[in-house]
Amino acid sequence: QVQLVESGGGLVQGGGSLRLSCAASGRNVGSTAMAWFRQAPGKGREFVGTISWSGSLTEYVGSVKGRFTISRDNAKNMVYLQMNSLKPEDTAVYYCAARIGGTSTLSSEYRYWGRGTQVTVSS
User: Fold this and answer.
1) In whole angstroms, what is the distance from residue 25 CA to residue 4 CA?
2) DSSP tag of 53
């Protein structure tokens, strides 16, 4: 069992930055791949990025490449999403997710989810 709690969302102007955090706890945290997904109003859940347990492998959706960076601190059981050059189309609820094993871009392959944190980017 893995519990996830996101924080760091808020309102920011276009071009600004935010850093989201995800605190993980539970028995299997040490063997999890982590990911961030987002869901805008009226849209489905979208993959944003993922990171392997070791941190050596990351993958991003094309729309955020070069702007967003995922990192993790396994000593603190934390995962981060640094978001730079934010755009109004980045407005969404951002979810942290975890799965035992390797990375995946598919939400259906993630068993553990946080409750989300709202990110709003004004134009």
Assistant:
1) 7
2) T
3 φ/ψ sector (left φ>0, alpha ψ -120 to 50, else beta): beta
Single-letter amino acid code for the residue at 17: S
Using the 8-state DSSP alphabet, how is residue 34 labeled? E
Give pLDDT tens digits for 25-62: 988 777 899 999 999 999 999 999 999 999 999 999 99
Please state, in angstroms and rounded to a whole number, the distance separating the CA atoms of residues 78 and 21: 7
CB 36 within 8 A of CB 19: no
Rg, Å, the chain Cα set: 13
Say if residues 81 and 101 touch (Cβ distance below 8 Å): no
What are phi and psi for residue 107, nearest 5 degrees? -65, -30
